[in-house]
Amino acid sequence: MSVDPQLRASVEAWIARDPDSETRAELEALLVTGDEVALRERFSGRLEFGTAGLRAPMQAGPMGMNRVVVRESAAGIARYLLANEPESARRGVVIAHDARHRSDRFARDCAEVIAAHGIRVALAEPPQPTPVGVFAVRPLHAAAGIVITASHNPPADNGLKLFMGDAALPPASTFVQTLLFTPRGLGLLIVGSMVGGVLAATVFAISVVAVPLLLLSRGVPLASK
């Protein structure tokens, strides 16, 4: 079966900037089989920033949770914080994740992208219960916290939750949404070239600090490190 040319172009453009071989292969297979229904499902819009953040099945394309969506979301959050939260670069962002499949990779992507915007990052390396990541925002005096989790959603889902410096939900999620998928700032995320048909991406990581559970529980301020 053939795929609509405009849809094919969108899918191929996504594949070209996807750093993940697994999701690239997913889309390439759908193009080969001509599964337009599955492709339209994945490219029918953009995953929207809802209550506390994003949540969706882990699949390729702008309607799923994947590394491209996570990186673009992290870039939007970083720009929002720099524009709206005083001293956010110095205060930093706490990032934690649960034990779901790919949560650790998504958390590292968030850490690298936000740090690339000049914002300090405290990354909790072992998986943590969601409340630990939320709690850590206040004692660390962070500008915001991100937890990679889909809570009670099915195992095939994942998500990204955003909490502000007072551990409350973001008051301006609509504004954050306007920043999530804009081209501005993507140069900070990915500098890549095609090597053997595979996108070789370099992500600039600045000031990423790994913080174990013990450090989070002691409440060491990011600004003091």
Précis, in short:
The chain has 225 residues and is α/β, with parallel strands linked by helices.
Summarize the topology:
Blueprint: H1 5-17, H2 21-33, H3 36-42, E1 53-57, H4 67-84, H5 88-91, E2 93-97, H6 103-116, E3 121-123, H7 130-136, E4 144-148, E5 157-164, H8 173-180, H9 186-189, E6 191-195, E7 198-202, E8 208-210, H10 213-218
Parallel strand pairs: 2-3, 2-4, 3-8
Antiparallel strand pairs: 1-5, 4-5, 6-7
Helix pairs in contact: 1-2, 4-6, 4-8
Protein described:
The structure is a single chain. The protein has one domain (47-224): Alpha-D-Glucose-1,6-Bisphosphate, Chain A, domain 3 (3-Layer(aba) Sandwich). Helix content is 42%, strand content 17%. It is built from ten helices and eight strands. It has helices spanning 5-17, 21-33, 36-42, 67-84, 88-91, 103-116, 130-136, 173-180, 186-189, 213-218; strands spanning 53-57, 93-97, 121-123, 144-148, 157-164, 191-195, 198-202, 208-210. The strands form two sheets. The protein has a six-stranded mixed β-sheet, with helices on both faces. A two-stranded antiparallel ribbon has the order 6-7.
Mean pLDDT: 78
Alpha plus pi helix count: 10
Whole-number count of domains: 1
Q: Report the top-level CATH class.
A: Alpha Beta
The rough form would be described as: elongated
Q: Which bin fits the share of residues in helices?
A: 40-55%
The CATH topology comes to Alpha-D-Glucose-1,6-Bisphosphate, Chain A, domain 3
Q: Tell me how many strands there are.
A: 8
Q: What amount of the residues lies in strands?
A: 15-25%
* CATH architect. name: 3-Layer(aba) Sandwich
Q: Enumerate the spans where pLDDT stays under 50 for 5 or more consecutive residues.
A: 181-209, 212-221
